[in-house]
Every structure is written in structure tokens, then in C-alpha cells.
Amino acid sequence: MSFDPYAVVFHPSVTEKTMMLMDKNNSLEFLVRRTATKPDIKRAVEILFECEVESVNTRITKQGKRAVVKFGGDTTAEDIGMRIGVF
Fold it and tell me: Of the CATH numbers 3.30.70.330, 3.40.47.10, 2.40.440.10, 3.40.1360.10, which one belongs to the domain with range 5-84?
């Protein structure tokens, strides 16, 4: 069975708080499949955006599961945000 990153990561979550995370922590927040594991989310984001992911933190809210993805290496959250149209 092939891995489908679009079945794991749904869309970015854009709020004032997540915009601060992007500036201060080089991170973006995504709404993800509730059954997705941290390694699944890391792999999906790396495939979708051709970038390096340093860490993934998740939490479950009323709206669903959210993943805060911290980028590493030469990747900046602002570049990814520009590519996916967060701004």
C-alpha cells in the first residue's frame, strides 16, 4: 500500500497564535487526520513541501487533531507559508 500524504495532512491552521509560532519558532500548525502518528505527519509534510522537519507536536481539540510542525535545516516556515498561501 502506498503512502498518501494528502490523507494525513488536511490544511494549515492560521490564527494570530500560529503566526507568532511561525516567526518565533519556525513552525506551522496543520489540521491532520486524527489517527495519524507523529512519524506519519513528519513524513507527509516532508513529502508535500520537500523540506526538513525537526519535530512534530500534536494535540486534539474539538475541531480535530492539530500538529505543530517545526522545520529544521535551511527550511523556514515563512517560505512554506508563502508556497501554500498562508499570507
Answer: 3.30.70.330
